[in-house]
């Protein structure tokens, strides 16, 4: 009799637990596996170098279909140059709060992103992620503790410095030269001669193929493309790809376009691999540039930010308005063009929320976590107003320039390069024919179609038209920020053609004060002189973690 009673009691408990679990599932409260996060960071990509912003000159079908199927970020901002943007992305903090607000970090500089800062992969580690980086680091390598696999990444194939030759993988900096290609901390001599975009793609595909799809993956892909290489071959691309782009008459632009086509192919391969592994349906894909494009020969490059003003390392829209999108089946409202204000610092808190984390993750004994970034996950997913209405583009007291956008108003103070690059640069690429069929039959499109609806031919054209920026037809009011501060209504005048400083002096004064307030919170730039001990010639012409070595450099 006791056995019967015990059995009935067990059955009752089992039935009760089954009902409770059913209720939990019905209400959508079941624990789900965190999404895979794939962050593709293009290097020096111009606002006008992708098809989804209105240019038909460079075919980017794999990138475009993801943008149209997801959320095109049309009011998205980055820092004006490499190291500041990457430090902001990794920490969720503005470069003025990291000491990275001035210029870039060189391979022989004895510094790196402060070790007191917790960075993105360290947070994902707490959520059970496997973290992989394939590509460019550029946040310090003078000691191993500053390199990726010592800062939360489980593996790294790529390079430590800011650029490299696409084939021989050497980097020229400040009169020095050396190999810069690593697999973990080991020198990747075996990859010599392999086109860098191909090497990055193969490693990404390998990572995805070997990944246990039940574990969440953070795959960070900071490409070399489309940054220029060494001066002896700045725009390196496969000859067969260049030959396919004969409709582009300018030789440098054609070679740049070939580099971009190879990057687009890489995106298609990554998406295809995720699809084959059945990981795509639980993935978040981010595509972003790190800064505006170097146009018209700037940095020996041929990007286009048309019709925006300025280039890389300027605070005009062409230097800081980023080409980017967000794609995921986990987003509720997609196939749209977002005007929600967003900054590169926002990715950290936004992705932590998307991964199932919360603000408690930002309470850490390894970092003083006062984030500048905002959590936009819900706003983006539901198409709600952005929690952000202000963007500090930068304050660089060394250069003597700064810029800030507050609501629809933007102020620019001072300039870089003595104003040499304060202009508008093409090409527009809008006279070429846009091949929608190529977009709809791309590798990315085939993969997306297997898990959900992709936009139609007409929907693509409508989205593309909405994402295309046009300039005001009003008469220009000139501006010279080296002489006096400039003010623009950036919502109505994204091309910065009408200086309203004299017309709205009170608005100008408010924004001047806001920049001054920000500047009271800034830490000094951390730039240091290049250390002669870091010259690759002392390490068999390899860029090395020279701060970990004991030796003496003899100088005459």
Give me the CATH architecture, please: 3-Layer(aba) Sandwich
The CATH topology is given as Alkaline Phosphatase, subunit A
Question: So how many helices?
Answer: 14
Q: Largest sheet, order of strands side by side?
A: 9-8-5-4-10-1-11-12-2-13
Distance between the termini: 99 Å
Largest sheet: 10 strands, mixed
Level of helix content?
A: 25-40%
Q: How would you state the average pLDDT, rounded?
A: 93
Identify low-pLDDT runs.
Answer: 1-31
Structural class designation:
alpha/beta
Strand content: 5-15%
Name a few traits of the molecule.
556 residues, alpha/beta, Alkaline Phosphatase, subunit A, 10-stranded mixed beta sheet, globular, disordered N terminus
Structure description:
The protein has helices at residues 2-26, 61-69, 82-91, 120-126, 196-210, 239-243, 251-276, 317-320, 347-354, 377-382, 436-440, 443-449, 457-467, 505-519; strands at 36-42, 71-73, 76-77, 130-136, 155-159, 170-173, 176-179, 182-183, 186-187, 217-222, 283-289, 324-327, 336-338, 342-343, 390-396, 401-406, 409-413, 486-489. Helices cover 28% and strands 14% of the residues. The chain has one domain (37-389, 421-463): Alkaline Phosphatase, subunit A, CATH 3.40.720.10. The protein starts with a helix and ends in a 37-residue tail after the last helix. With 556 residues, the protein is α/β, with parallel strands linked by helices. Strands 9-8-5-4-10-1-11-12-2-13 form a 10-stranded mixed sheet, with helices on both faces. A 4-stranded antiparallel sheet has the order 15-16-17-18, with helices on one face. It has a two-stranded parallel sheet with strand order 3-14. The protein is built from 14 helices and 18 strands.
